[in-house]
């Protein structure tokens, strides 16, 4: 039973009220921990702490900031197993996946410790002999980071690490379903000696905390990962104080398999790009488009692989796919499959869900499901499912595949399988998506920019590009 607190100005605090949030194991409904529900008072305290810490942290030599991040990274490695256990308990994914995520979270700290010392300015040739032009890159100010439940470790460090590297203090608001992982990671920031006010943690109502953060002009930037609908709301709210925003939002990823694809590689990519985390990923494939010549062989091989998936409690080392996060997520999957079946989709494998808990919000499992003969009017082809359902559709030509793939308001990730170098480059360039996996079911990595086109977001995280959203550009004209 993990009983965590708020972390504000270097101290662990209870909320001013008596309300606490119970954190459930989504596999069985057991209460695995509690966190306080912060009120507006605590949010304002966090903003004040971060604001007061800003000048000193921004003025600290980059090498010193890098040292703090490096120590935090080392502690993440030392506590990898305990954090992975907490992550699985509150989020549900198999332990093997949780360990991989914690390792990835650590790599963001390592990477941005290195990027901190690479923030440079410019000297630009002037237009007259009695002037000099200097350009500086300076931290934007206090950052509010709002993170999701599906990757409760890596999404935190992907946001906090570049912010701190740039010189920005952070207020972290994690998802209420998975706040324990966030608290465990912040505990290590404290142990790493990061100065007071530079990292703050508030848990509780997204509406209450979000409103307080958005209304306060001292918060200069919002970085958010979550649904497109909430992202749009935050963007509207940011206008009053002209906050900078980074938004990583929903996806509706297409998976294009051409006749000349390496079949084994394409099938292996399905497991990575769709089954991982029970399909609860913004980059998860939602639409499979398979060329006529390879369709039957591909479907047969995928069905064989899906039969090997063992669904259950992620703490069981033999489990390869965990539960859906809650009843709402489960019902959406059921609704999408039911709608598709009623409109004529064929059910080749799966289609069954189960509820294994007395708790109404936990214990929901849905087996990997393979649907064929899907059509455009089905919900599953228009909306993000966030579950382990694979809708398949045939295509004949490259032009048709591109038309189908780009027919979406989303543009986060897309996948292409072909052994033709020319086709691979041609199709990748024409796909209207921010991330393309060409013969790769897992393209996200710390050193590369991650983000979407269209309604899938604004800005990029990862790589040296991930520093830019936390830096302002200042031009100084000097008369001599």
Automatic annotation (TrEMBL):
One Pfam assignment: Aldedh
Database matches in InterPro entries: Ald_DH/histidinol_DH, Ald_DH_C, Ald_DH_N, Aldehyde_DH_dom, Aldehyde_DH_Superfamily
Species of the source: Anoxynatronum sibiricum
GO molecular function list: oxidoreductase activity
Keyword list, A-Z: Oxidoreductase
EC number: 1.2.1.-
Name of the protein described by the UniProt record: NAD-dependent succinate-semialdehyde dehydrogenase
Residues annotated as domain Aldehyde dehydrogenase: 12-476
Enzyme class: oxidoreductase
């Amino acid at each position: 039973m993990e009983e965590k607190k708020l972390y504000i100005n270097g101290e662990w605090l209870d909320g001013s009220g008596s309300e606490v949030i119970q954190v459930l194991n989504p596999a069985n409904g057991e209460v695995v921990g509690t966190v306080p529900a912060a009120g507006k008072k605590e949010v304002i305290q966090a903003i004040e702490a971060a604001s007061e810490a800003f000048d000193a942290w921004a003025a600290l030599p980059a090498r010193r900031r890098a040292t703090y991040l490096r120590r935090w990274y080392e502690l993440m490695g030392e506590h990898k197993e305990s954090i992975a256990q907490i992550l699985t308990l509150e989020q549900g994914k198999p332990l093997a996946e949780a360990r991989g995520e914690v390792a990835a979270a650590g790599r963001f700290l390592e990477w941005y410790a290195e990027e901190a010392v690479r923030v440079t300015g410019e000297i630009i040739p002037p237009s007259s002999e009695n002037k000099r032009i200097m350009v500086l890159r300076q931290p934007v100010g206090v950052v509010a980071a709002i993170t999701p439940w599906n990757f409760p470790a890596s999404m935190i460090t992907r946001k906090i690490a570049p912010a701190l590297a740039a010189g920005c203090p952070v207020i972290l608001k994690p998802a209420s379903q998975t706040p324990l992982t966030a608290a465990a990671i912040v505990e290590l920031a404290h142990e790493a000696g990061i100065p007071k006010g530079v990292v703050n943690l508030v848990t509780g109502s997204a509406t209450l905390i979000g409103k307080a953060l958005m209304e306060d002009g001292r918060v200069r930037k919002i970085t958010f990962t979550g649904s497109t609908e909430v992202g749009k709301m935050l963007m509207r709210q940011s206008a009053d104080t002209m906050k900078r925003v980074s938004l990583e939002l929903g996806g509706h990823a297409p998976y294009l398999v051409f006749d000349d694809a390496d079949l084994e590689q394409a099938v292996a990519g399905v497991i990575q790009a769709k089954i991982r985390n029970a399909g609860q990923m913004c980059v998860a494939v939602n639409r499979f488009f398979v060329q006529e010549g390879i369709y039957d062989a591909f479907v047969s091989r995928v069905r064989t692989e899906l039969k090997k998936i063992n669904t259950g409690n992620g703490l069981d080392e033999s489990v390869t796919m965990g539960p859906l996060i809650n009843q709402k997520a489960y019902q959406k999957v059921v609704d999408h499959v039911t709608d598709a079946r009623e409109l004529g989709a064929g059910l080749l494998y799966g289609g069954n869900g189960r509820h294994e808990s007395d708790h109404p919000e936990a214990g929901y499992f849905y087996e990997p499901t393979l649907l064929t003969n899907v059509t455009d009017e089905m919900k599953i082809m228009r909306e993000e499912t966030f579950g382990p359902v694979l809708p398949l559709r045939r295509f004949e030509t490259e032009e048709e595949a591109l038309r189908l793939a780009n027919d979406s308001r989303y543009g986060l990730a897309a996948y292409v399988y072909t052994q033709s170098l020319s086709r691979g480059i041609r199709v990748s360039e024409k796909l209207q998506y921010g991330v393309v996996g060409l013969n790769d079911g897992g393209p996200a990595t710390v050193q590369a920019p991650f983000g979407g086109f269209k309604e899938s977001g604004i800005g990029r995280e990862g790589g040296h590009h991930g520093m830019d959203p936390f830096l302002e550009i200042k031009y100084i004209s000097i008369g001599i």
